[in-house]
Design goal:
TIM Barrel, single chain, 17% strand, alpha/beta, 8-stranded parallel β-barrel, 11 helices
């Protein structure tokens, strides 16, 4: 399973890139808004992310109609070869994905919550499908179970092109563990969650023990 960083924060991306574990980045309007960036600066911001990450960088088209999504998608894809156009899983999004995919532009269909949505996204030509997990938990439903259904269903069919499942809206190490066990191709996580993945109390306890024992050796 590959790890993508779900953020638009350049400092977090630069730091995580140095760990050698981040294969891509996913952004959305909310994440960019948190950086305090302006609309006019968005293209240059995406270019800066692409310079930090040698991998797919999802940038979202925010148009409401298929024509608007296609136009924005073309503009985003023209920024850099690493850009993947993020498109919502809607009727207009499906139609736009078909056009963009036929033009050789990779699309990540986002806000996917069901098996039918995922299959339709793949049929429309999406290179990536992003089923959300945490938002199901917000309404007291089992997001991991829904992710499992999407992964199993998509694996049953040949869509004529490679379709990767991005497990999205992952909020804990448990979510990431379950996504890995289910065979998700990619887990996209916030920087805070990525930090937690490497943490374990037994690791900390072991390091403290090693340090104490080495201090004894040094004093001997």
């Amino acid at each position: 399973m590959k790890f993508f960083l779900d953020t638009a924060d350049l400092a977090h991306i630069e730091e995580a890139a140095g760990w050698g574990v981040v294969a891509g980045v996913t952004t959305n309007p909310t994440l960019y808004a948190r950086t305090g960036g302006k609309l006019a600066d968005f293209p240059s911001h995406i270019l800066r992310i692409c310079a930090l990450i040698e991998g797919p960088v999802s940038a979202e088209a925010v148009g409401e109609t298929r024509g608007e999504i296609v136009e924005q998608g073309r503009e985003l894809a023209a920024l850099d070869s690493h850009v993947v156009v993020k498109v919502p899983t809607t009727i207009e999004g499906l139609a736009a994905t078909k056009v963009l995919a036929d033009e050789g532009i990779d699309v990540n269909m986002t806000l996917c919550f069901s098996v039918p949505q995922a299959i339709l996204a793949a049929r429309a030509g999406a290179a990536y499908v992003s089923p959300f997990v945490g938002r199901f938990d917000d309404i007291s439903e089992d997001g991991i179970a829904r992710l499992a259904e999407v992964i199993e269903a998509v694996s049953l069919y040949d869509f004529g092109h490679t379709v990767e499942i991005i497990a999205a809206s992952l909020r804990s190490a448990h979510h990431v563990t379950q996504a890995a066990l289910l065979g998700a191709d990619i887990a996209t996580v916030p920087f805070g969650v990525l930090q937690k993945l490497i943490k374990h109390p037994l690791t900390d306890r072991g390091l403290a023990s090693f340090a104490a024992d080495w201090e004894k050796v040094a004093k001997a």
